[in-house]
Every structure is written in structure tokens, then in C-alpha cells.
């Protein structure tokens, strides 16, 4: 090996040790670094590739935690941010206005899900990450009833079992993933959890739609039992992502919409992960033909370049805060609310959806993914392979038995993660669920690599 190669190898090792000396990584048991879990230093990225200091490429099959949409370092978004940075990098959004915030709000409202006969979403409130967006929606729903004055008991939220809405205390309160939630339970506000419509939980012989109808019936009973106590229901439409990419039939969403109307409570759609084309349509709600009262967007909103969240609300919700009293106003704020750089990135991303016909191209990519899935679905220990648009998941279970699970001590998911990384693909399983949520630019050769490596990773993990 030449001294040049040595120097490059040293560079990765150098960054690893400097990193572990000072960084505390998110969602990580730090004791697992570096021995159980390798740390991947990334020098740069382009398209679907992450590139190491040694030039080695790793396919980003998880869109860097579901944020990267069109591809890493997309030049048009990079340019839009650079242009905006030289013009107006940030300004207080209370009392001030700027074009990127206005234009982005206009564009988002124009593409938001619509339902015939229902007044459209018509106002945009910005926050700076997904969890903050959820906090905004929860507080708005609660405060709206307070402002109306006649509902002093409406202090609760309904959420779904196995749902996920973020990590801040309010967002965690409506989440139902024990690993994230259990330890903080004493700090959390009350939420009422309804059974998940998750089609993986269907009884033998039951259809996904039948399973969704059962869950909706259970929700109906729950809402009756808590009549007058609830201000809103929050859910992830079509795919419970952090809960293991569990998918459900759109019939559930139609029933939820009806039930929320009957009970006079708000429907909050958390499309933070599934929005912007992930499920095949621009927004997942479209596939059920429903429109929520509050729509939370983040993650892919900026194409994956900068943190930003948008909460879209109906005129009726907005009007509930108009008053002479400041206390009736929605006084929530974040320092970087509506940051111009983030808004410019989001506008550039939406421009790409139009100019590159992204949704049409994704249909072809999703069809290609479906073909590749067939060769993996039949492997031993794959209990289910499922897909919604650009999201694919493989549920691993001993013998492929849906009612069984691997002993957590076997760390099947972690072994798959390591096996894939050694072969040049970044998969980051959720427990024993392996999934693909690639940047939309992924091409046929990259998909073929992804499928080959997934097969090998499953074989190694379950061996
Ligand atoms: C990631 C996620 C959030 C939280 O977003 P952050 O930006 O990570 O705070 C909320 N809801 C869903 C459905 C998510 O996937």
C-alpha cells in the first residue's frame, strides 16, 4: 500500500476518533461505537451516494432518515440556498415578511390535499423540525377549543398504537413506540391510543381493508367513550414509518375523517415522513380522498437540505384565534420560524417536482422496486414484504412466521445493518424490519445493488 493510501485510511480513522471524543450521536447507545456499530465518516455526497474520505461509495437506501428527496447535493437546491444566503439569510418572522415564506405558503396550499365540499387548507404556520410541527398542531387544536370557550374538558388527543410523531415531550406523548416512550412516561400528557389499522396485524384470511374496518370500528367506540374530552386525532396516513413501515388500507382514513366530523374533533395528518411523493402521490391523504384539518410537513419539505416544518390549517382554525385579546392568539414561536434559506430550498424542491415530473418517474421506479421485491419476499425468514409507493419493507421473523419474532438478543437488524454496510449499502433497520426508502434519483443499477445486498444482508443476519 502506498503512503497515499495510508494517509487516506488514516483520515477516516482520524475522523472516527475525533468524533467519538466529542460527539453524542442521536438515537444511539454510544457504548456500541465503535466495536458493535461501525461509524461511517462521510466526506461528501451526490445523488444516492455517500462518499467516504477514501472515495468509497455507500448507497443511501434510507434517504438519510427519510429527508433526502431528489438526491444528495442536488445542484438546483444548493444553488437556490446559495443565492438566498447572499440576499436574505434570516429575518424575524413576527412582524416581518419575506418572499420565500410567502411563496412557499402559496405553493404548499395549492398542492395540499383537497376534498370536495370541504373548505381547503388556507393558512401556513412554520416551525423548524417535525416534532416542533406536531407540537404546533396539538397546541392549535387544544387552544382553538379553549378560545371557543364552551369546551373546558377537551384536553386529550387520540393517537394510534404503534404511531410515531417525534421526540419532544408533546410529540412523544402521542407516540406509541415503547423504546422511545416508556422511560419518559411519567412526564407525558394523557393520550388515548386507538388500535392500529396495520395490515400486518390482520387475522389469517382477513384483507387489509377488513383489518382497517375493524380498527375504525374500535376507534368509533373509543371516541364514544371519550365524547367531549378529545380535541384532535393525530395519525400517520398510510404508513407508520418509525413503527416499522407498517402499512394500512386507505379505507381507514376515510372512516377516520367521518368519525372526526361526527365528533367535532380535528384530524391532524402527520405527513412528515410520507409527504412529498413517498407513498406514490404527493401526499398520502390523496389516496383516501380526504383532507385533514391540520397537515404537518417536514423532512422532505426542503428536499432534505435544511430543517423546516410547515403546519397547514383550515380557515376555521385560523379564525378561532382572531380576537382583541393577545391570549387568544397563537403565541407559539421558534427563533428560526420560516427561515428564508429553508424556504428557498423548499421552493427549489417543489420546482423540481414540476420540471422533472418526479411523481411520474417515481411510478416507474416503484414498479422496478416491486419486481426486485419479489425475489426477496420468498426468502426464508422473510415474513412479509410490503410496499407503498417508494417505501418497501421486509419483516424478518423466524421461519417467516408472522406471529413469531427473533430473540432481540440476536440483534438480527443490527447484523443486517453491518452486513449491508460492508457491502456498500446504508440500510438502517427498525428492529427486525429492513426497509428501502431511497432518494428518488436512484437508478436501475443502484436498485439492483440494493436488492443484491439486501438478500445477502438478510442471509447473514438470520444465519
Ligand atoms: C421524523 C418524524 C417526526 C419528527 O420529525 P423530526 O424532524 O425528527 O423532529 C414526526 N412524525 C413523523 C411521522 C416522523 O417520521
Automatic annotation (TrEMBL):
Pathway: Cofactor biosynthesis; biotin biosynthesis; 7,8-diaminononanoate from 8-amino-7-oxononanoate (SAM route): step 1/1. Its EC number is 2.6.1.62. GO terms for molecular function: adenosylmethionine-8-amino-7-oxononanoate transaminase activity. Pfam families: Aminotran_3. The keyword S-adenosyl-L-methionine applies. The keyword Transferase applies. Pyridoxal 5'-phosphate binds at residues 130-131, 270, 334-335. Keywords: Aminotransferase, Biotin biosynthesis, Cytoplasm, Pyridoxal phosphate, S-adenosyl-L-methionine, Transferase. It is an enzyme of class 2 (transferase). The modification N6-(pyridoxal phosphate)lysine is found at residue 299. Substrate binds at residues 65, 164, 299, 333, 428. It is found in: Cytoplasm. The record marks 27 as: Participates in the substrate recognition with KAPA and in a stacking interaction with the adenine ring of SAM. PROSITE patterns: AA_TRANSFER_CLASS_3. CDD domains: OAT_like. Its main location: cytoplasm. It comes from the Bacteria. It catalyses: (8S)-8-amino-7-oxononanoate + S-adenosyl-L-methionine = S-adenosyl-4-methylsulfanyl-2-oxobutanoate + (7R,8S)-7,8-diammoniononanoate. Signal peptide: none annotated. Its cofactor is pyridoxal 5'-phosphate. Belongs to the class-III pyridoxal-phosphate-dependent aminotransferase family. BioA subfamily. Homodimer. Catalyzes the transfer of the alpha-amino group from S-adenosyl-L-methionine (SAM) to 7-keto-8-aminopelargonic acid (KAPA) to form 7,8-diaminopelargonic acid (DAPA). It is the only aminotransferase known to utilize SAM as an amino donor. This is Adenosylmethionine-8-amino-7-oxononanoate aminotransferase. It comes from Luteimonas rhizosphaericola.
